Structure formats: C-alpha cells, structure tokens
Protein: Large ribosomal subunit protein bL33
Organism: Virgibacillus indicus
Amino acid sequence: MSKKITLACAVCSSRNYATTKNVSTNPARMEVKKYCKTCGEHTLHRETK
C-alpha cells in the first residue's frame, strides 16, 4: 500500500518534495539527500507527518 509523503529540509525546514512510499516494506521515516532551492545546496530531507 503506497502512501503520499512530503520531504522537508533538515536545515531550513522548507517542504520541497512530495513522493510516495510503500508503508508495508519501509515503515521507518525516509531520509534522502536532495537539493534544497532555499539553501542552495544538497541537504538531508526527512519525511514529515
């Protein structure tokens, strides 16, 4: 079962990305290094509630 999630920058807390993830295979919160246009660099983005 897929669930829509949003990813927020760990540095500036701006919500930049929206994606889906399979909850049954990945129950933990997702953490990905992505480009943040506010910070202007690649930073860690975490799944928000």
The longest strand covers residues 2-9. The chain has one domain: 2-48.
